Amino acid sequence: MRDEFAGDRLLRNDNGKFVDVSAQAGIKGNPIGFGLGVAIADVNQDGWPDIYVSNDYIEQDYFYLNNKNGTFTDKLEQAIGHVSYFSMGNEITDINNDGLPDILTLDMLPADNYRQKLLYGPENYETYQNMLQNGFYHQLMRNMLQLNNGDGTFSEVGQLAGISNTDWSWAPLVADFDNDGWKDLFITNGYLRDYTNMDFMKFYADQKMKEAQGSPTALMDIMKQMPATATQNYIFRNNGRLGFENKVKEWGFDQTFLSNGAVYADLDNDGDLEIITNNVNQEVAIYRNEARPATAHYLQVQCGAGYLAKALGTKVWVYSKGTQQYQEFYPSRGFQSSMYQPLHFGLGTATAADSVRVVWPDGKQQTLTQVKADQKIILEPSGAIKNGLPVTRVKTLLTAVSKDTLPYEHQEDEYNDFKRQLLMPNMLSYQGPRLAQADVDKDGLTDIYAAGAKGQAGTLLLQQKNGSWKASNPPAFVNDFMFEDTGAVFFDADQDGDPDLYVVSGGYAYLEKDMLLQDRLYLNDGTGNFSRAHGNIPYESSSDACVTTLDIDKDGDLDLFVGGG
């Protein structure tokens, strides 16, 4: 259902007249969809442009895939595991040179511990769970880098890449600023007043705002007392290993501004990209790029010399020294900013591109070979021929050998560990299911024990000769369904030639000395039937986290190391 006055809109250009086709196109008109960023790109490489909308506040982002018939379908929850909470500007581009468009969204998590504690932070656990239960999606307060897996799904690697915390961020600009062949990242950030300053709100503003009710002038005076912090913008160098290095000082960005919009352009036509930022209550800042020519060759590709709209959606691949770079021309980038042509490619030490491949919006292609570096080339669609789209094939690490899934579904309880241990970095009651493997019934096939959560018995998954799996729940496992299994290992405890099972108990749902924190040993009768052994292991009712076997005293039998939780 669309709101009449709020929500996103899609306006179709009908010969110079714009027609609102939002409803029939499947564009959401939710009044709480506070969209701050929109990016367009052919994300799934099917030849049709898709749309990503980043939403501030509680509404999740939208990821619209083009249905090729004038309509779109939001596939966010099927494609992406979690997104930014206060999503700001965004960008779609190939970060890791695999030929697939990745998605970057910004948020407002500070980089240092002091400001993380001073300003409004991520929601607490109860609020987060309540949000999920009320139909909202997984949203976390930090920048997100969604790496395209090539199969319609994305893996979020922002923390791994080192770009997750950049304060109140607005515009991400992804471009090769040092011309080494890898796209770098520039981020603007800043806000005029720290209106999420928790000290100010708690110890000053709350009382003053009560006193100022009905007086706009008094409210304005309170706002003027609100702290203001000018912050640095961020620039990161792509190291080519799915990581980014902070180059704020080395690259000359250690001044403090309150910046929002930003663009890049080769202003002095010397083959590297300058950066221009829009700053609040200050002049525009222009940063001249001084990349070293000897190791910073480049190639600029302009798609058409005339009408800009004809080039929208043009795709360009540049191949050099066994590497590929991919870009798609859409001028809207970052946060409410627009970049003009040409597309800029860094070549590093290469003095020529082995080949340049271009696919125009109508599907026509052209390929150039041995293109000399350090120049701008202008291509026209008249030189292209009709051909199929190039397909980026992703070589996966693993290959599916069976479509059959395991007949087991883990059911976590909803206990909040943080209520007992506020300083823990993560909860220990939500780490299941732990798995252990062995041939428990001596049929030559590996079987699996799936550890259960509190309130769920552990399950034995027996492999069948046809590749399927059969679930088994021996009475001994069912009787112990209230234990929280936090680790398991098979080993021959009684030295009778078959694997027995040791399961450690843990989590924070039970207090110390509770009998439900006692570890358990289950003995195998040789056919896969297990019974609990009593008196074979020490009585230690404390929370454990893991277990492994080793012959620590070198007497020929296996001992156990049990790690505490």
TrEMBL record:
Record has Signal as a keyword: yes
Pfam family, one: UnbV_ASPIC
Keywords annotated in UniProt: Signal
Domain ASPIC/UnbV: 311-376
UniProt keyword annotation of Signal present: yes
Cleaved signal peptide residues: none
Protein name: ASPIC/UnbV domain-containing protein
Organism: Adhaeribacter pallidiroseus
